[in-house]
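Possible regression after last week's pipeline update?

I re-ran a chain I had predicted before the update to compare outputs. Posting the input and the new output here so someone can diff against the archived version. Not blocking, just want to make sure nothing changed silently.
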Amino acid sequence: MKLSIAKDLTPIRDVAYRTIDAFAGVSRSSYITVAPGQEMVYTQKEKEAEMITADPSISPSLVPHLAAEAIMNGVNLLDQAAIVLSLAHGWRQVSVLIETTRLDIKARVGVATTPAAIDALVGEARTTLSALSAA
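New output (post-update):
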């Protein structure tokens, strides 16, 4: 009779999951401001940019974030809307790479059978997510 003792990898996996999430957060923070409420500001600015694109003669009072930024940047509302929409599009492109990398590696951690394999996956996450960070 063979005796098989399986090590409980749950605590190691939990640390790996948190570490991978932290690496993803650092990567994201090189592109966006990570602060409470900031996501709402980005969403509002994109909404305002879409409103301006739909009606270039819109009253600045209806798009206050972009109206203020246009003044600060010395551009008209339509140009500011184009800037915001371009940044939003760019963010979505990199965001999907960060998120799919994070989820893929975490899934592989979930089925890894040794601490060494989990550690290697955390190293892969560090390398890959660091490479996705903005320069």
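Follow-up from reviewer: compared with the archived run. The helical segments are 10-29, 38-54, 64-73, 77-111, 115-131. Marking as no regression found.
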